[in-house]
Amino acid sequence: MSDPASNLAVARRYLQAVERGVTGAELEGFFAPEVVFEVFPNRLQPQVDRQDLKAALEGAERGRKTMANQNYKIMHEMADGDRVAMEVECVGTLAVPFGSIPEGGPTKAFFAVFLEFREGKIVRQRNYDCFKPW
Fold first, then answer.
1. Sheet order of strands, 49-51 included
2. Which of 37, 95, 127, 130 has the smallest C-beta neighbourhood within 10 Å, fewest atoms?
3. What are the tens digits of pLDDT across the range 103-130?
């Protein structure tokens, strides 16, 4: 079993990296090669989406082109053994128009993120994302 405090520190650094739009090898460094990402149904995605590391890194590249900036505020967090849970508020600015929001327009979302660790690396991420109406 991993150290919960160390896992929480890694989870915070990971979220900060995502906030900065980090991609490629720098982002990949947070994950075990066999990591599985799951995003549960939300307004943008009507079905459960499961991705491997390659697909998630490609998604990060697309996301970097979509968002001009984003700010993540951890509302609550907890760590227990190999697991970290975070409730996150995300406020951002679009780099491209989306729905009724123009380029440069604001976005707001709330996420519940559950991470599982092995040897200091994320091996599983589950997201429950809630987006403000647009």
1. 49-51, 31-39, 121-131, 106-118, 83-94, 67-80
2. 130
3. 999 999 999 999 999 999 999 999 999 9
pTM exceeds 0.90? yes
* Token representation of residue 26: 């720098």
Strands 31-39, 67-80: pairing is: unpaired
- Kindly state the tokens that stand for 13: 């650094």
- Could you report how far apart the first and last alpha carbons of the chain are, in Å? 42
Judged on CB neighbours under 10 Å (0-12, 13-18, 19+), 115 is buried
Domain that holds residue 49: 4-131
Structure tokens at 43: 């307004």
Angle of CA points 73, 74, 76, to nearest 5°? 150
How distant, in Å, are the alpha carbons of 46, 112, 130, 131 from that of 41?
A: 5, 13, 9, 11
